[in-house]
Amino acid sequence: MRRYNLKKTSEYASALSKYIPNAAHSNFKYKPSAIKFASGSGSRLLDYDGNEYLDLSVRSGAMIFGINNAEFNNRYDYIRSTVKKRDIEYLCSEAILRNVPGADMVRYGLSGTETIQNAMRLARAYTGRKRVVTFEGNYHGNHDNILGGRYNPLTLPYPSINADDPHCSKGGMTNALRDGITVLKWNDIELLENFLYMYHDEIAAVITEPIAVNAGSIMPGEGYLHAVRKLCDRYNIVLIFDEVITGNRTQLGSIQKTMGVKADLTVLGKALSGGDLPVTALLGSRDLMRLYENHEVIYGGTYNGYEMGLYAVYTSMSILSDGYYYDEMRSIAEYIHSLLKDSANAYNTELVIQGDSMCASFHCSPHILTSYEQYTNDIIFMDNLLRDIMILYGIYCCRISRMYPSCALCEEDIAFVQNRVGYIMEDFSAVKERAVSSSLKKSYKI
C-alpha cells in the first residue's frame, strides 16, 4: 500500500492560509496539521485528493456520534417537533443533573474557556480568597489568568513563567497568571498537602481534570482524587473538575460516578451536545449557585442556554442513556489499540496506549506515563512523527497523539486499521532513528 498523495489537499491548505493563519482555526506551540477535509460521513473523512481517513479525532473529542449521524439527526428533529421551547430548559437541565453526582443546579455557556472562568469567579466569591491551584499538563482554556505556568518550588506560591512552557504566549498578561494561580505537579498528593498546609488561606479552588488527558491521558494514582477531595474539605476550598473532555464521553454525564469522588463545581462541554453545536455547562451545589440567585456574582452571555444547543444536549443525553453505545465504542477502540501495539511490537518499536479508552493517547515510550515530567519533548516528537505517518495511511488522530472513538465506529473500521497498521509501523521503524538527529525535530518541539 502506498502513502497518500496530498497534492490537491496541500494546495487548498496553501490557498486558505492566505486568509486564515496556517489554514487552522486554533494553534499552540506545535506544528499544525496541513490536512484539510472536503467531506465526511460516519467515521470517515475525505480530503481534497479523494483519500479516505478513519476519524479518531472527531473534533477533539466533541463529535461523539461521528459525522452526520442519522440517528442523532432524526432524534434531534423529533425532539424539536415534540418538545415545546418552554420545556426544553427544564428537561435538559434535569437530564444533566441526574447524571452528575452532588450537582443541584446548572448554568450554560458556549466554550470551556469561558465556563471555567465563571467557575473560578464563583469559587473566589464563595471563599473570599483569590488564588486557584492548577496542575502541570492540565489545560483549562486560553485566558491569560490560567494559560501556562510551571511548578517551581523556589517561586511558590507563584507559578514559574518561561518561554519553554508550551502554553506560554507572547502578549499574555503574566501578572494575571502570577497573581491568580499556583501550578503544582499532578498525581503528587504529598506536594499538594504540604502546599495547602502553608497557603490554604489564599486558595479559593483546586481545579483539575479527573484524568489528565491534556497531559498525555495520565490516569490519577490510586486514591489521588479522593485525597484531593479530603484536603479541599479540610481547608474549605472549592474543588472544580474540568470535565470538558471526560464529561459525556467516558460515560453519561460525569466520570465522577465511576471514580466515586464528587466535585463542588463541574464543567462539561465538547461531547455534551454531540459536537455539532457548542454548549458547555457549569454544575454545582445549591449552596454555591445561590450566589447567582442572589445576584452577588455575574454570569453573562447572549447565547447562554440557546434553544438549538439545549435541544442538542437533550438529544445527546437521550441517545447515550442506552449504555450499549459506550460498550461498543470501548470494544472497538480497544481492539484498534491492540492492533497498534501488536504491530509496534513486531517492528521492535516502543509503544504504549494509556488512559481511558474513550480518550486514550499513544506514546513512544517503554512504560506508561504517570506524571507530566515523564512526557518529555523526545516522546512528544516521536508521538507526532508516528501520528504524521498514520495520517499518510489514512488514520487521523489528534495532534497530541490522542484517539477518540465515536458511535460511528464499526467492524469495517477495524479492518481499515488492520490493512494499514503494518505499513505504518514499517515506515516509522525505518525513519525514527534518522528523524531524531535531523532538523525535523525542531518543528515538533513544544
Could you name the key traits of this structure?
single chain; alpha/beta; Aspartate Aminotransferase, domain 1; Aspartate Aminotransferase, domain 2; 2 domains; seven-stranded mixed β-sheet; 13% strand
Short description:
By secondary structure, the protein is an alpha/beta fold. It is 39% helix and 13% strand.
Protein model, in words:
The protein is an alpha/beta fold and 446 residues long. Helix 3 (85-97) packs across helix 10 and helix 6 (189-199) packs parallel to helix 7. Strands 4-10-9-8-7-5-6 form a seven-stranded mixed β-sheet, with helices on both faces. The chain has a four-stranded mixed β-sheet with strand order 1-2-3-13. The model has no long low-confidence stretch (mean pLDDT 94). The chain has two domains: 7-68 and 323-410 and 426-444, Aspartate Aminotransferase, domain 1 (Alpha-Beta Complex); 70-320, Type I PLP-dependent aspartate aminotransferase-like (Major domain) (Aspartate Aminotransferase, domain 2, 3-Layer(aba) Sandwich), CATH 3.40.640. It has 15 helices and 14 strands. It has helices at 7-16, 70-82, 85-97, 112-127, 174-180, 189-199, 224-234, 256-259, 286-293, 307-320, 324-346, 377-392, 411-418, 421-436, 440-444; strands at 37-41, 44-47, 52-55, 105-109, 131-135, 181-184, 203-208, 238-243, 265-268, 280-284, 352-354, 360-363, 395-396, 402-403.
